[in-house]
Amino acid sequence: MDDQLDIFKAYDVRGLVPDELDERKARAIGWSFARLCMSTGGVGPDAAFTTPAQPLSPADAVMEDSQFSRSLVVARDMRQSGDGLASQFTAGAMAAGMNVVDIGMASTDMLYFVSGHLDMPAAMFTASHNPAAYNGIKLCYRGARPVGQETGLALVKEMAQEALAHGSDGGEGTADTHLERIDMMAEYVDHVLSFVDVGTLRELVVVVDVANGMGGMVVPEVFSKLPLKLHMLYPELDGSFPNHPADPIQEENLADLKRAVLDMNADIGLAFDGDADRVFLVDEKAQPVSGSVTTALVATRMLSKFPGSTILYNIICSKAVPETITAMGGMPVRTRVGHSFIKKVMAETGAVFGGEHSGHYYFRDNYRADSGLIAALVILELMSASSSSLSELLEPFRRYKSSGEINTKVDNPAGVVAAVAARLSDSGVQCDLTDGLTVDYGGWWFNLRPSNTEPLLRLNVETSGELEIDTCVDTVKHLIEEVS
Prior knowledge:
- By secondary structure, the chain is α/β, with parallel strands linked by helices.
- 34% of the residues lie in helices and 19% in strands.
């Protein structure tokens, strides 16, 4: 039995089932996460959100009763392996002395809502956009507070590794723990709808491709309350993804949606990923909309509701995002890529909204968590208030040309980034090492960084149009080849 836990990434757990992630490991992780939650009152050792707890180790993490309910929420997406993995995680958590609230199948943003609404830590079994053979676990503390490597995930890994090595996962459970199954859909729908004035929405034609993912469950529930003409593509929940991958950041996976938008003369197309926490847009001309442009558009609405507020954007977003925020009197703040980093900065700055180029959109009033559905509703509200088409609304934010994310497999992504940075620094080029390497030449800029979840080197390039985007991309690729 392979007890290695390389499945622990920067801010979640993810791997092939059962070769890398199996039910035994899920149980150990459930036991470890429950112990961590119980020893920190369910909020974790994160000073950005709560008073720091005493440092923990596998040897001294203790199960202390606290003022919170000692309950943990568990949910899963439609993947075939999810039921067994979630059941064993639940058994491990209960063995540690934790009660479990099972909400069944859910989207990840629904799980975050329940964590915030019930003020409980939570675990979501999903591998998001990854192929069917994968599964994983997204963890959060009470109030949907993020769990990342620096805020408890490394400790969960260490305790789980020790439990697997010594069989110390608490046996069959304790007599005073219980499992409760509840339905939170109605509360979730009401919460999502609270972000817009439903009465102002007009009868738009909307095509939604959920790619057999969890959007097939949550989108109809939310949109049934709205005066829209809804057309769903692949709404059947099927973790084998029989039609196309549930990864809308890859433009080839938008082909069916683009065709349907044109065929149905739709006003907008929406594409959700497997766990339905991300959304990508297609305009009425079947042109894809980048996450950066969507961030800029949503930011205008949030700043009209909350003038002068802070808005976050990650390091690979278009320059159009901070320029738009500044022009509207807001305060743009740049962050690292990744939800655990963004949520922490939201807590520190009080930001009302944050967006990522990857299609994650975070809202202060959504427990600082991301929700593609909330972002989609905000855009539908903006469209309803305007006589312009979506492409016309987006035109002011499409003033730069982008390469999109270019992924390359290399033996040592972090080493390549460091070598490129050193080469440029030696040449007198100013290098920003906030998250990977960012270099701004004025007319164009690039970011090169290792993936937080996969053994990939990620490159993003943007130009104002003075230079061809392919020329800029080739310049960076040549640098990578020189140092590899």
